[in-house]
Amino acid sequence: MSLTIWQVVSIAVYLLAYIVPVFVADPGKTLSRTPYALRTTGLLLLMLVVYAMARVFGGIAIMAAIPMAVAIVVFFVLWSVHRTQDIGWPRWLCLMFVVPVVGFIYWIVLLFKPGFIRPGELELKALFNK
């Protein structure tokens, strides 16, 4: 099996879309469960729409779908890095998204694992739960 230059470039762009956000994300930024779940689920639905449009219309729709898919992957991984930091785990764990089944399992874990309680958060909850 030999790869064409376009297949090699596609694989390189795909890997860079997963790897670069892990290293450029703001180390102090976090994302709690609910916003993470809403954002990533919305991105996955958008990815399905883009895929369906590319399959139905072909040609130019496929050319438009490629940069959109890369942008979706970048935001997905970036938000996953923020969520991972909220849990208190190292950001490089987001590189697991490159492995398909392992990445899906890691996404499910990020959806349900509670994050750290930040200073002042307990007082704020107590104030609103009176």
Structure commentary:
The chain has 130 residues and is an all-alpha fold. The protein has one domain (9-128). It has 5 helices and no strands. The chain has helices spanning 5-24, 33-57, 60-87, 100-112, 121-128. Helix 1 (5-24) runs parallel beside helix 3 and helix 2 (33-57) packs antiparallel against helix 3. The longest helix has 28 residues, at 60-87. The chain is globular. It starts with a helix and ends with a helix. The relative contact order is 0.14.
Write the layout of secondary structure elements.
Layout: H1 5-24, H2 33-57, H3 60-87, H4 100-112, H5 121-128
Helix pairs in contact: 1-3, 2-3
Structure at a glance:
By secondary structure, this protein is mostly helical.
| Helix amount | over 70%
The residue ranges in which pLDDT falls below 50 over 5 or more consecutive positions are: none
Main sheet, how many strands, which sense, barrel? Answer: none
Mean pLDDT: 85
> What structural category do the secondary elements indicate?
mainly alpha
Write out key terms for the chains shown:
130 residues, mainly alpha, globular
